[in-house]
Design brief:
Pfam family, one: EPSP_synthase
Family: Belongs to the EPSP synthase family. MurA subfamily.
Helix content: 25-40%
InterPro entries: Enolpyruvate_Tfrase_dom (IPR001986), Enolpyruvate_Tfrase_sf (IPR036968), MurA_subfamily (IPR050068), RNA3'P_cycl/enolpyr_Trfase_a/b (IPR013792), UDP_GlcNAc_COvinyl_MurA (IPR005750)
Radius of gyration: 22 Å
Strand order of the largest sheet: 22-23-1-24
Pathway: Cell wall biogenesis; peptidoglycan biosynthesis
Number of strands: 24
Shape: globular
Bound molecules: uridine-diphosphate-N-acetylglucosamine, phosphoenolpyruvate
Subcellular location: Cytoplasm
Length: about 425
């Protein structure tokens, strides 16, 4: 089993290139099979979840041609199965997008119930409500969602909760339904807009993505497109907090600063200097961080996917902070791991009270999920001693070349898979 070993204490300094947004890319790859023409997708992150999705779509007959690490050509004309059997697909959350894409194009789909990080109960009732409202019969049979429709008809739909997944999924199906669909109380995340832009580039007619109401005029067919995925705001934010926690000076390159507004605002609250450029953001932390209050919310609020990263910063900040996690009920597991490193935290329901400590001590901890794993790496980099992180497979789901990027900023982090390698690292760092 691979682990990260970290010797912290160095400020992270330098520039780091941010890749394409994993959560936009997963939906865009699913949407790419909705045309019989060839689609070229660029700025794809090379991470495990993306590779699982590519294998799943090639498994049902789509042609997938990787031009380079970040560029792929997809042709969905030879799809011969609407049943996603591929075993790994149920392990990722975004497998549910294949349901929306296949149902829209072929009026039939069978996909295993989705997995993803264990951060809460994660129901999909709003996806199913949307498909049914468009005229599909949807059942859950033997762990699979089975959907089919004689005809998909535009509808007026009000989501009961703001859901990124349901908004994108139903938008994909409605893009190929007959007539007009109006979706209210939708998610406004940048990746919702990116998927709408991608579908429009293939000839869909979707208006209002990024606002509370999306209007879709269904089209019969979609056509070829060349599309570049937006930068990953969560990867960018993770490196920005790594700078904050190590008293560093890091510039994240290839970002859309507007997408980082909530993250930037919190970094400023806790005492960092933040400079915005056209497509870069610089974070400088010169002194001890200050406490603050945070509540996770749908975009444009503070993202739940950035909650563990700020949690680490607040555990080192002067004073008492609170975090309220209002999206997923099980996203505080990393705090137990952080407590092993000396953090002082009390969790009650969906709220955590954090008394900042001056420093952590190195420990052996486990990544409970993707973002929490990345946050624990930040904690290790902010700690003088040695930290070992188990279960880094979660981190590999969503961060490309994570350790190499941190190394390029001066971080002493290595991937190891044996006691011998651990001892070698310890000898090297003294
Ligand atoms: C692959 C992907 O893009 N994952 C992201 C996506 O997850 P995901 O699409 O699963 O998250 P949602 O936005 O759907 O979930 C938001 C809230 O709505 C609830 N809900 C959702 C759907 C539904 O049918 N019923 C329901 O009650 C969820 O339990 C949660 O409390 O958005 C989350 C919120 O920004 C991010 O943390 C995840 O990284
Ligand atoms: C929680 C995440 O992913 P998933 O929804 O795929 O579990 C994430 O990207 O932070």
């Amino acid at each position: 089993m691979e682990q990260y070993i970290i010797k912290g204490g160095n400020p992270l300094v330098g520039e780091v290139e941010i890749g394409g947004a994993k959560n936009a890319a997963l939906a865009i790859l699913a949407a790419a099979i909705m045309t019989d023409e060839t689609v070229l997708i660029d700025n794809l992150p090379d991470v495990n979840d993306i590779n699982v999705m590519l294998e799943a779509i090639s498994g049902i007959g789509a042609t997938v041609q990787r031009l380079d690490r970040h560029t792929v050509k997809i042709n969905g004309s030879a799809i011969g199965s609407f049943n996603i059997e591929y075993d790994y697909i149920k392990k990722i959350r975004a497998s549910y997008y294949l349901l929306g894409a296949l149902l829209g194009k072929y009026k039939r789909a069978e996909v295993a119930l989705p997995g993803g990080c264990n951060i809460g109960s994660r129901p999909i009732d709003q996806h199913l409500k949307g498909f049914r409202a468009l005229g599909a019969d949807v059942d859950i049979e033997h762990g699979k969602i089975v959907a089919d429709a004689e005809q998909l008809r535009g509808t007026h739909l009000y989501f009961d909760v703001v859901s990124v997944g349901a908004t994108i999924n139903v938008m994909m199906t409605a893009a190929m339904a007959d007539g007009i669909t109006i979706m209210e109380n939708v998610a406004k995340e940048p990746h919702v807009v990116d998927v709408a832009n991608f579908l429009n580039s293939m000839g869909a007619n979707i208006r209002g993505a990024g606002t509370d109401v999306i209007k879709i005029r269904g089209v019969k067919t979609l056509h070829k497109s060349e599309y570049s995925i937006i930068p990953d705001q969560i990867e960018a934010g993770t490196f920005m907090f790594a700078a904050a926690c190590t008293k560093g000076d890091v510039t994240v390159l290839n970002v859309i600063p507007k997408h980082l507004d909530a993250t930037i605002s919190k970094l400023v609250d806790i005492g960092c200097e933040v400079e915005e450029f056209d497509d870069a953001v610089r974070v400088v932390a010169k002194k001890r961080l200050r406490s603050t209050q945070v509540k996770t919310l749908p975009y444009p609020g503070y993202p739940t996917d950035m909650q563990p990263q700020i949690g680490v910063a607040l555990a080192l900040a002067e004073g008492t902070s609170t975090i309220t996690e209002s999206i997923f009920e099980n996203r505080f597991k990393y705090l137990d791991e952080l407590a092993r490193m000396g953090a002082a935290i009390k969790v009650e329901g969906n709220s955590a009270t954090i008394e900042g400590v001056e420093k952590f001590s190195g420990a052996r901890v486990s990544a409970p999920d993707l973002r929490a794993g990345a946050a624990l790496c930040i904690a290790g980099l902010a700690t003088d001693g040695i930290t070992i992180i188990d279960d880094i497979v979660y981190i590999q789901r969503g961060y490309e070349c994570f350790e190499q990027k941190l190394q390029s900023l001066g971080g002493m982090i290595e991937k190891v898979s044996s006691e011998k390698e651990i001892q070698k690292f310890k000898l090297k760092v003294g």
